[in-house]
Amino acid sequence: MGQQCCGGQLEPNSSLNDQRTKQPKNTLNQSENHYYNSSLNNKKQEDIKSDGIKEAEIKSKGNQKSSSYNDSNNNQFAMQLEDKSYIVLVGQSGVGKDALIELMTLKGLEINISRNSKDNEPKIKEGILGEEYVIVDTPSFQLDDEIDKREAVIKEFQEYFEVPKQISSIGVVVNFERTDIMKKKVTSVLKYLRKFKNIISIIVVNMELSENEEEDKNHLRNSFKHMECNKIIFINKYMNQEEILEQFMQITPKEKTKIDFTDTIFEKPNITEEENFLKMLNEHFSNLRQP
Fold it and tell me: Where is this region: Disordered (predicted)?
């Protein structure tokens, strides 16, 4: 277990997909209905104007309420629990992150609602494992997919880590199967996170499918060694929380690493650079239109 290995975070289980963050509903005064009521035919124009102002005020308060809810949620995820070690789980779709999250029976699983995120976009979740770990469940790492999916995942990472986080470990989750397929899945994630390879470990799940578990563990340690990850650990579906905690202790160093996405795909673009680029494009197309 302690050997070094390759290097390269979880997707919510269908049971977890039903957990939705409920935002407060705006209770708005529907005064528009009154405008069309026949009883208002004799109402003075000043009264109608007054009703319109009241309606606008109520709508404004409703929007402020919704905004303050999102701000509160963002603040919750911006703050870190100093006495906990944060483990960020990443991985492709279908590698068994959902099942792993369910197996860990996390406490207080919360969904991070980004400021500009839409309901159908992937979300980051946090939950507490045991007494010392916060597990960060990230969206499927499908960065080689179409641009919309790729940008949604990148935006979620950017907003979660907008306030710098101290992370103990990044775990690349991969399901046990043919070694060459496992390598491909790990590499597809690792290539975007090589900057953090010293805190990256591989978490192999579904080890109950192995016919000779110890032999396969040794084979996988050797197969992933060239990736220069921190460690490799193995999880099977029959493990209880205490046994999973023992495995996670192996990939959690005492020191924490501040996550800085500079020079990675998750780096936020410089606004000034973007503006200059757009200005250059506009000038270019303006010149093309000139006779």
Answer: 1-47
